[in-house]
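User: Okay, second chain of the day. Same drill as before: sequence in, structure tokens out.
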Amino acid sequence: MRELVERAAAERGPRHVGLVVGAVRADGERAVAATGRSRLPDGPVPDADTLFEIGSITKVFTSLLLAESVVRGELTLDTPVGKLLPEVTVPSRDGVEITVEHLATHTSGLPRSPASPGYFLRWRFRARDEDPFAAIDRAALLAALERTRLRRTPGAERWAYSNFGVGVLGHALVAAAGSTDYGALVQERICVPLGLDDTVLVGNGEQAAREADGHRGRGRRTGHWAVAGLPGAGALRSTATDVLTFLRAQLRPDDTPLGPAITLTQAQRRRRGARAGIGLGWMRLGPPDDVLLWHNGGTGGFRSFAGIVPNHGVGAVVLANDLRSPDGTGVNLLRLLTR
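Assistant: Same drill. Structure tokens below.
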């Protein structure tokens, strides 16, 4: 394992500003290798405890919160979103209400973003170093939800990826749990039970000192994304150490306090074609006896990948502080580990 991880970091590292590659087996064996810089021009080499923005891998944590709420009996997968957010008139279509399962499986009919395409077009050409979601707080998100016209009937077999939907799910789960905010709920129900010390919305002073800078084209440094109004969709920061601990829990759910919830997230909820499917948060690829569960993430200056192959008992994480996708690196590493 160590040889494969080190080879992946060495071969793919030159494509990135900084790169951390890690792998874990169900028995707890793990390996991490890193290369490049945590910040340009002369920052330190990143390591297993460097914090990266993990972007949409956050959605897997949000879906685990959903599953844990189901296990606790706070709601069911069929609970309408409007019941949890009664202050909002949640859109429906053809008489079908949006449920929490629809949000977690991208079958709500909500568009990809609560902001208009023109909003992001202006951001792309004027302020790409800034968080494009900075102006979208909870109130703005829920206001956008009220005025949205659904593109399809909720629950359709075909899914359409929606940051909007999972952002709403995060707020609905906070309301169902009676928690103060999304970050507190993740800490209480996922991080503490699984022993994740560095998975946070905003790091403390010591964690901030270990945080990588994001970079875009030609090594230009970007600002950090807070995604404050949609934290459930992509606001978490984490380390290779924590993500590997999380992935080992996914490989051995019965060894954790969250076993039933983890198992619930991995089960297939929708299928697309012969090989692709989706669980709660997790994307699924391949036949049932050799399925890859995965998710990736991206913010203004970071890209990430996490995946497991449960039947082979292996998982992998790849974190980069630039805009080159590490998906191929992660998938190829898992392929080699399952030979």
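The mean pLDDT is 93.

User: Thanks, on to the next one.
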